[in-house]
Amino acid sequence: MARDARLRVGFISRWILEDASALSGMPAAAWAALGRQGLELVHLGPQGPSPYSRRWLQAFLPAGRALVPAAHRTRLRRKVEAMLDRVPTPFLYRRIIDSAVAHSRRVQQLAERARPDILFGLCISVELCALETTTPIVYASDATARLINATYPVHARRPRAYHRASDEIERRSLQRVNAAIFASERTRRSAVEDYGVPPARTFVVPMGAHVVPAESDQPLRPDPPGPGDVELVCVAADPVRKRLDFCIDVAEELARRGLRVRLNQVGPPTARALQSSVVHRAGVLRLSDPADRRRHAALLRRSHLLLLPSLGEMFGIAPCEAAHFGRPSLVSDTGGLPTAVLHERTGVVLPLDAPAERYADEIEKLCRDPARYRRLSEAALLRARTELNWDAWARSVASILEDVVRHKARAAQPAS
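The chain above was modelled as a monomer; its predicted structure follows.
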């Protein structure tokens, strides 16, 4: 629904907003959804590498990196990471901070030219860290540096100086915001406890799904699983962090118990996935490819349950997508997953250290209790349609943006 007065929003993003695959699809989805709210959006897209992108090592890689075959680049990057761990910490720390400050200054120049009513962006700690402006700022994210460096193996392996620098960049950024919106309660608590953001400035607004049914206005009536037909789906762009092999353990345990099971796997395979007879490999599916989105939707529609026993997960868009098809999820109690999946209401949340047998137990119970499965399915679908979608997210965010601008205007008025 369009608003009476169009708020001019400087939308900060270094990503190409037409690319539905960039940053897990979040900037593109947010840009489109806020536009549907009637806001006037101005893209402030700073050029140049960010220390949080995959290019953060470029300054240290050999000049001939482009000549290295793609198959050997991961090995090269790891060698450089090991080398950087021996670089004096103050030097590497300063290099990363200086890169972030330069990136932030580019944003400041763009903002000064655009003259928006308010600045907004997703995952923009680098862009905000040195921004000097009187324009109010609203920040949104599914993560904090402290959480992601502690729970994502790829980030945990980075040099200590990187961890220190990213922590400092996050602290400087969050000190500048008028409001901070997080996808989960766990991330909101990290912002308050780890970075000192006043609780009154923080909000929890769950994000939406990218892959949804094409016929969203038609009822979905998924059949419950049974011992003779159990289809699971695991969406894992990072198969180590999302524990694809653990999902295979669960599926093979069910097979040993006599259930007829199939695990639909989206994302790059592991060696185990290439060998297991219970795995159906769909490969890497890109959000920017309409054909891939249709294949992804077909897998969600035919599966009974989504498995996501992640070691670390800042939010969990995959369970939101499963919910849009009326599919409950079984997830681990980590990060934002207990926000994306409500235990015993829209799925099951198990302790992080729960073994594969415990997951198999829960799935077997659902196979033998179709009424319970239908309750979870109906509740998941209702929540998806009312809350776990980008339009619901945008309505909440637009309201926060307007409140911040109104508060700033009132504060600027001279006392009578």
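The chain has two domains: 8-208+390-412, 230-386.
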